[in-house]
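Notebook B, p. 112. Complex prediction, attempt 2.
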Amino acid sequence: MKNIQEQLKRGQKISMNSNEKGLIRATLLRTINNSSVVIKKATSPYIKNILVTMKKSVVSPFSFHSFVKVTALTLIILIGGGASLSFASEKTLPGETLYNFKISVSEPVREALAFNKQNKAFIQAKRIVARVDEIKALKEGGILTEEKSAMVKNLIEEQSASFIETATELTNEGYSDAVVETTSILLDSLNDYSENVKEEEKILDTEATKLENGNPVVTLMKTENLKTTKVEDDSSFKKIEKEIVFTTTDISAVIGAVKKSIENKLPEVVETIKEQEKQTQKESTVNEISEKTSDANYILNQKQKICEIIATTLSEAEILKAETLTVKNSIDTKNLVLTGTSENEGVIVLSYENIVSGIKIYENNISYLFTNSVLIQTIGTPLSKIPFEEKELKIQSTEARKIIDQTYITNECEKINLIAYKETNILGRTNLIPVWQYKNENHNILINAVNGEPIKPVSEEYLR
Amino acid sequence: MEAKPRQYEKTFLEAYDLFGDAIFRFCFFQTSKREVAIDITQDTFIKAWEYLDKGETVDNMKAFLYRIAGNLVIDYRRKKKPDSLDNMIENGFDVGFDEKGKIEKQFEGREVMQIIEEIPDMYKDVLIMRYVDDMSIPEIAEVTGETENNISVRIHRGLDKLEKTMAEKNRE
């Protein structure tokens, strides 16, 4: 009988994969964000689409329709080549199988098939918008990593360069309206993104307040100026000089500022081009045409610079936000994993999966931005007496990872309290590292998240 | 759950992170189809959100989610039409593709997992909740609306049936 129970327990290993989890999470987020809007259901209760009366409908990625679609597409691909592959790859995200196909085949082919330059510029702008949407989708799905963020950033840069090139040609040929129109598509997309970022900032603020209220010894996070970006002055277009101060607490403001500078600049660009066109018509001299082209090129150079700033800003914003969230969510100690011991030094090394609003940080992916090692040091207690086998800190063995001696500490770990934040400086950036304490009659253990540094117990004032 | 909107949403998403896999497993064992199980899991949380969004309160989130999932599974079973092979192929069924069997092979308990399909639902449900989802007897009682005593008896009988079925299979 016991054998049967044990075999049944093995069924616990069945779970959704990270993509499935992430997609459901993204659907839930959309549902939550639009919960004031009417949610309509399709006829079938379990194989269906969730249609939300909003800009975009939310469709179950696992629905029967998508299953049939995938099967049908596989057949079509086998029979008729890759034409349908581009359709299949349309909604893929970085890291998925068909994403590379979409980027390097499907989209360039579509671009090459543009019937004129205006259409080409439009398609190129849509490609950049698609990248921004992908970042959003990755974030909503909780699967945005630094690597994917960098990849999308590179693509945005490349595609912006192509777009600017086409736009330059169009302007030279006198199609400035088309340039303005396509640029406005980009702005719309960035506006949406900016709104999204602002919403998340509000959540962060609430969390920060909660953290401070709950822990009297918590050191307040400091706002640090991390980056200063300058948009160069241009005498032809009045004063567009703007210094953007990049802070950890005001990421959305930066995006907003960049966007605003484009928006402010856009009417002036149009106006200037129109004026120049009028002049050109009146005077029709070769020199003036040449001058106009030169000015137009300058405008486009400026726009290119701004595009680059936007791309950098988006990427920086992602990283900084993830970093901020990491610090604020580090109190989640439920998934501490023992990764090794070193009795000579009197420390136990742990790593943890930090679930940050859907962003899972695994030990293998963690870079300097994300603290992954946790050192435990006892105060006045030999290491061998750390009560890991007592009820308070129960360890369960697991085969989930390959690390030797790996153990999970169960939910009992909730008894570890966050007692302080320690300030560290990593690559010029200030990070606040959480410090936990486990204390009972016999033991007083500090758990201090550091990044390979020797452990430094926090000052006594935190222990009272 | 608190009435503050943002905290409310965050708590709900935490509930998804915490119970998502368990609800999926529950649906998977009840329907034997991965796509359906994932759909029902998603539906379960959407329904739960719709309920909470009306201002209703829930004392035991886990039990609440299992109840919704259980009802959706019942709906699924009721509306499931007998499949003809032609219809199944038309709807994307791939002959020779056995999702559950594939997963079961990944761990040694596949024999029990195959045989559990053969015992009545009333026993299967409680055994899955007790041993696969690690729920306590009071929790199962709350989800099913039965008394704790009934659940204990059902688990005991379910294990007996499972053991006998396995013994018969081994003799064959």
